TrEMBL record, chain A:
Protein name stated in the entry: Carbohydrate ABC transporter permease
Keywords annotated in UniProt: Cell membrane, Membrane, Transmembrane, Transmembrane helix, Transport
Principal location listed in the UniProt entry: membrane
Superkingdom in the source lineage: Bacteria
Compartment(s) of residence: Cell membrane
Domain ABC transmembrane type-1: 75-279
InterPro entries per record: MetI-like (IPR000515), MetI-like_sf (IPR035906)
Membrane topology term: Multi-pass membrane protein
TrEMBL record, chain B:
Annotated Gene3D superfamilies: Periplasmic binding protein-like II
Protein name listed in UniProt: Extracellular solute-binding protein
Signal among keywords: yes
InterPro entries linked to this entry: Bact_solute-bd_prot1 (IPR050490)
Entry superkingdom: Bacteria
Entry keyword set: Signal
Signal peptide: 1-24
């Protein structure tokens, strides 16, 4: 490639770099701030003296957390939820996407089936019916309340379906001639060929399960069963002072919010995703593009 | 004799009233009244009764080893005393509790007993979700609770009565939370040679000095004047870091339904005084006397804790919120003053007589358990036995918490503490809570402000509650619940109000935008709501 070295191009390039650096900084700053606070001295954090570098470096907050059973319990609930929920999501996504990627001539009710699931993506019964349903199913306080309502990730199904469709028809025709049934085709042809797409949808469902807090909040009746994000959420949300009695308020002030502790909880809360992202990101960028364009 | 007479009256009343309501069961009421004569123990249920409750706890709730939310020294005490067996249906932190509760009530998945606010109480009463407590109240209630209720002129009973039926045991609203006082750093005033402010002009002069004259003495004028918060300009109960004190000094009571001179119901945010107050706050903000970034600030407490701000409005219990400041700087000497209006009067709006409601789910078999529980809780609040003294009243581990006390309880405690410190009352005669405060006061006197935790409670009772003693011109709110139109429109109206007020203060709207706001407010449902309230009051 020939480098255009005129003055204006350089200027444009330079300012683009500055702009990108600025945007990168803006996205990184909150994370750096949280990390800095988590390693800072309590008093310095409460007085707002910490910016992007810890003030009075110490790891007291982290050792507190490692002995905090509530935190560890919630962490475990989240891990369990990601595993159980992720596996359920994966199985259902694959098993739905494959038949839906076939023509209507092969799968007679394909179109009505498709509409049926798309409707659920656009409309929902609302939260109160869901709450009542979960109550009658007796799922409060169980892991199922966290994984079953989101068992069918429609968006992921469509993504994977489009990816399956982009696999040349000739492959499945050849398979047919050689006598492969649908299961054999799926296992030996489609799944091995769709690694990027599968990694993408798996990442989606893992991140989703790891990050959601609201279902944990409404379906879990005791705080021991809260997933990690629900657990963290209650510490970082600003309390609406009008809704609590002055006795509770006074008690709250006595304890004075411990920002370093909260920050370290957030840091540990984002670690798992930070760790797996780089490994799946390769597929992620690849996969999301492949799935999006259908020939 | 008296009780029987009362019973007769209540029975007659309940017959009349239930006769009016659609789902009347007069036979039932009669049947219950017939077996009324057997004596009952108001402090103990004959058989254990399991009661399902929900709990709001602090997010970092710390339980002792081996204790659970359902089985701990509090629930155990309650069970030992009254046979009231606590079953926790669910619990959540105070940040999420409301949301969860609303969902549960909307799904009719309510606990047997709970403590709710007035709006929720009225909504549940209207949808017939609550058990009638009229009879069990008369039969079981302790004379102490009756005494406290009577001290409010029985306004709390009226508030808890719906369609002639008593549907809740109300908590008495402690009026001390109503006045918004200016908390000022006396050490800053002394350093600058200023007198504490008594009116708006003096307040402005003081803030100007705070901003310009470097009261913290670090060589740069980096302190700010008055703090504000990003939620509202004037809270209804005891709000911290708001401008309620300024509004009240113009005889305006935002977000409160009051009667004007002609006896008509008006909304406190729309009166001319509110415009005057907004004008003053707007000017103060323009002149830099108010924190420039208050509308964006997440926690103004930080400014106070770090010694950047030395003046803000708050209720009498503010010292508990000031422990951070005193810890960081033991020289911080906080004092409280009321800001007077032009005529030299201190204006406040009283709080609703009842502050919360203990309700029983309709169909619960033992409604008397609620009254027995209230009796026990009232006793442990005021005259605890040896076991009860170890427990903290108002702790979130109690199955249900309520307040039964005189409406002027804080002022009473102030007097008690002053007398005890002066040796006029023996410390042994104080109740558990005040004994603790008394001991803290002694420790703090020996080493002033060295231990912020010993400083907070005595300071709140001595200084904060001391301010309450002066004469105040109190306006009673006429209504504090919700009407039909409010249910649909209130959120929008409040948003309109809040946005307009903030914009006026921040200078992005002219002061005269207030007049447009009042017109819009009336047109978008305000007028209808006022007529609904007038009708409601006549009932």
């Amino acid at each position: 490639m020939v480098q255009n070295k005129s003055w204006t191009t350089r200027m444009t390039k330079g300012s683009l770099y500055v702009l990108m650096a600025l945007i990168t900084f803006l996205s990184l700053a909150p994370i750096l701030y949280t990390v800095a606070v988590s390693f800072s001295d309590k008093a310095a954090a409460a007085a707002g003296k910490v910016t992007l570098w810890p003030v009075g470096f110490n790891t007291a907050a982290y050792s507190t957390i490692l002995n905090d059973n509530n935190f560890l319990g919630s962490f475990f609930v989240s891990v369990k939820r990601v595993f159980v929920g992720g596996i359920i999501n994966f199985l259902i996504t694959v098993l739905m996407a494959y038949p839906l990627s076939r023509q209507a001539s092969e799968f007679r009710f394909r179109d009505s089936y498709m509409w049926f699931i798309i409707v659920t993506m656009l409309f929902s019964g609302g939260i109160i019916p869901l709450y009542i349903l979960m109550k009658y199913l007796g799922m409060f306080d169980t892991i199922w309340a966290l994984v079953l309502p989101t068992a069918v990730p429609v968006f992921n199904v469509i993504l994977l379906m489009n990816f399956f469709r982009s696999i040349p028809k000739e492959l499945s025709e050849a398979g047919h001639i050689d006598g492969a049934g649908p299961w054999y085709m799926l296992m030996k042809v489609f799944i091995p060929l769709s690694a990027p797409a599968l990694a993408t949808v798996t990442l989606f469902s893992i991140v989703n399960h790891w990050n959601s807090f609201f279902d944990g909040l409404i379906f879990m009746r005791s705080m021991e069963n809260y997933p990690l994000q629900t657990y963290i959420q209650q510490f970082v949300v600003q309390t609406n002072l009008q809704n609590i009695s002055s006795v509770e308020r006074i008690e709250m002030f006595k304890k004075l919010s411990n920002q370093t502790l909260n920050a370290s909880k957030i840091v540990i809360g984002m670690l798992p995703i930070l760790v797996i992202y780089p490994f799946l990101q390769r597929y992620f960028i690849h996969g999301i593009m492949l799935g999006s364009v259908k020939e | 004799m008296n009780v029987k007479k009362m019973l007769g009256l209540v029975l007659a009343a309940s017959l009349i009233f239930t006769g009016c309501s659609s789902n009347s069961t007069p036979e039932n009421t009669e049947g219950q009244a017939a077996v009324d004569n057997a004596p009952v123990d108001p402090f103990r249920l004959p058989e254990p009764v399991e009661v399902k409750v929900t709990k709001s706890v602090l997010p970092d709730l710390d339980l002792k080893d081996g204790e659970t939310i359902e089985d701990n020294e509090y629930t155990q005490y309650v069970f030992d005393k009254t046979n009231f067996k606590t079953k926790v249906m669910w619990y959540a932190s105070s940040t999420d509790y409301d949301q969860k509760m609303q969902l549960a009530v909307a799904s009719n998945d309510t606990p047997d007993m709970m403590v709710v606010n007035e709006t929720m109480f009225r909504a549940m009463a209207a949808s017939d979700q609550l058990e009638d407590l009229t009879d069990v109240y008369e039969k079981y209630v302790s004379p102490e609770i009756k005494k406290f209720y009577a001290a409010t002129d029985n306004k709390v009973i009226d508030a808890a009565t719906y369609d002639g039926k008593l549907l809740a045991l109300p908590s008495v609203g402690i009026q001390a939370d109503a006045p918004s006082m200016l908390w000022v750093r006396q050490d800053w005033l002394d350093k600058l040679g200023l007198k504490p402010p008594t009116n708006i002009e003096e307040l402005k002069a003081m803030l100007k000095a705070f901003v310009e004259k470097d009261p913290d003495g670090d060589g740069t004028a980096n302190t700010i004047g008055l703090t504000g918060n990003n939620v509202n300009l004037s809270a209804v109960g005891g709000g911290l870091h708001d401008f309620k004190g300024i509004f009240n000094a113009f005889n305006a009571y935002p977000q409160t339904w009051v009667k004007d001179e002609s006896g008509k119901v008006v909304y406190g945010s729309t009166v001319p005084g509110a415009k005057e107050a907004l004008g003053v706050i707007r000017d103060m903000y323009k002149e830099g006397l108010i924190d420039k970034e208050f509308a964006l600030r997440k926690s103004p407490d930080e400014l106070v804790a770090s010694g950047k701000a030395g003046a803000f409005f708050g209720p009498w219990w503010t010292p508990w919120a000031l422990t951070g400041s005193v810890k960081n700087d033991p020289k911080a000497n906080w004092q409280a003053y009321m800001i007077k209006d032009k005529k030299g009067k201190v204006n406040i709006a009283s709080l609703p007589a009842a502050q919360s409601y203990l309700v029983v789910k309709k169909g619960f078999e033992h409604p008397e358990a609620a009254v027995v529980y209230a009796n026990m809780y009232d006793e442990v609040s005021h005259t605890p036995d040896a076991e009860g003294k170890k427990l903290i009243v108002g702790h979130s581990l109690w199955p249900l918490t309520m307040i039964t006390d005189y409406p002027d309880a804080a002022t009473n405690k102030h007097k008690l503490l002053v007398d005890a410190l002066a040796g006029k009352v023996k410390p042994e005669e104080l109740d558990g809570e005040m004994q603790l405060v008394y001991e803290q006061a002694l420790k703090d006197k020996a080493n002033p402000r060295v231990n912020a935790d010993d400083w907070a409670a005595p300071h709140a009772y001595l200084v904060g509650a001391g301010v309450l003693k002066q004469e105040m011109n109190a306006t009673d709110p006429v209504f504090s619940a919700s009407t039909k139109t409010m249910e649909r429109r209130w959120a929008n109206l409040q948003k309109l109000e809040n946005e307009t007020f903030f914009k006026i203060v921040l200078g992005s709207l002219e002061l005269d935008a207030f007049d447009t706001f009042v017109e819009d407010w009336k047109a978008e449902g305000g007028s209808t709501i006022i007529s609904e309230i007038e009708e409601e009051i006549k009932k």
